[in-house]
Each structure stands twice: as structure tokens, then as C-alpha cells.
Amino acid sequence: MKRRVPVSLGVGGAFLLALSLIALSVPWLPLTPPEMQEVARQFESPSWSHPFGLGENGTDVLSQALWGARLSLGVGFSSVVVSALIGLTLGSMAGYFGGRIDRAVSRLTDLLYAFPGLLLVVALAAVLGPSVRNMVIVLATTSWAGYARLVRGVTLGLREREYVQAARAVGATDVRILVRHVWPNLLAPLFVQMTFGLASAILTESSLSFLGLGAPPGSPSWGQLLNTGREVISSASHVVAFPGLMLVLTVLGLNLLGDGLRDRFDPKFR
Questions:
Q1: Which of 126, 206, 259, 266 has the most CB atoms around it within 10 Å of its CB?
Q2: Mean pLDDT computed over 253-267
């Protein structure tokens, strides 16, 4: 019987693809430069020439929101890939070899989980300073433990499978077994976790930028736009409404995509 694609997978995937294409093509779109200022028209309401209106110092909110999508997706994808690679490596080693390696990785993940997540992120961001590179470092450093725990748990079951035992019996090295027989079977749950992790990373990046600890001052960012608009929300709500709506839709789309991937790959949810 042919499997039906979950609706959430189609909707979430289509939204993420569209947003990614827009973010990649932003430099070539006919937009007002995000740094261009028209101070005399500060906080002007939406119009045909500026569909999202103008923000602080007369900057175009649409342009800044789309450039902010490029920044958020770039930071989110980079941090998720780095943290997933760290988690895949450490988690698979802990689950496959066990013993001291397993205990060391488990204690390290327990240490990270002992700190409140957002508090740890804010503390590291404050120490490193506001920059895009530092945001990726902070997010990857604080989020790899979840991937490691997931991978370790799945690897504990995979290492007892017949094909792994057969590969070990014919003399295959541990590295070859991990790369050829264990890692391919980890990709499905790992991709699901990465989808939810991307939504969390984008939210965290926006939170750091809102607090002034994320993107450098002057960089187009959803968090900075929300921070700018909070003081004029009663008189110029468009400065908050449009970037906030884009943030909400992005996180919603990623969560739908994650639910769809989980329904697709996990037999318990079919």
C-alpha cells in the first residue's frame, strides 16, 4: 500500500522551502536597503511603497524582516548542523562502546542539563559578546547534549542487531561498523530532532537579539525589530506585528515539519 504524506509534512516543508528560497534570494530582490534611513518618516504606517511600514529612523520594516529571516535561518542551520554532528559523534561512541566512554559522555550531558538552558545561553552570549559567529558557538555548545542522548539511546539498540553482529564477526573495524551500519540508521530520528532544534535555535537567536546579546547592533534581526517596536507598540504596532508574525509562522512551520517527519519515520505514530 502506498503511504500517504502527512499533511503537516507537506505544509511545513513547503513553508520552510519558500522561506529558505526567499532568504537566499534577498540580496537580489528589489528591496529598499535595510540600512537606508528616512528619519522624517520614522514609524510611518504601511503603504504601497513600504508594505510593512517604516521603523526606527525610517528604515524599511519589510527589508529588515526579510534580511532578518536570512540571518535567523543562517544562524539556526549552522548551529543545528554543528550540534548534531557533535551529538552524533559522541552519542554513537557512547552507545556503541559503552564503559568509560559512555559514562564520560553521560556525565557531560548531565552537567549541561544541570544548568537552566536560557540562563546558560545568556551567560555565554554575554561573555563572548554580540556577533553572528558567537551566536552559532553559543547555540551549538548548549544544544548538542539533546542529540547525544537521542543518538546514544538508538545506538544501544542498533549495536545488538544481527547485521552489526555479522559485520563484527567478519572482522569489520568499529569505525567501519559505525559509519556503514549504525549512522545510516540514525539519520531519520536525527533529522526529526534537528527540525525541532532549528525552531528552538531561531527562537533563542531572536531572544538574544532582543536582549542585545545576539546580532551586532545595526544588523537586521527579528529580535532587534521586536525590541525597537516594544516602546512604540501602541502608536506603531506594525514594527512589532510583521517581524513577530514571521517569527511565529517560521516556528510553527518547523514544528509542523518535525511532526510530519516523525509521523513518517516512526511506526508508533503511523
A1: 206
A2: 82
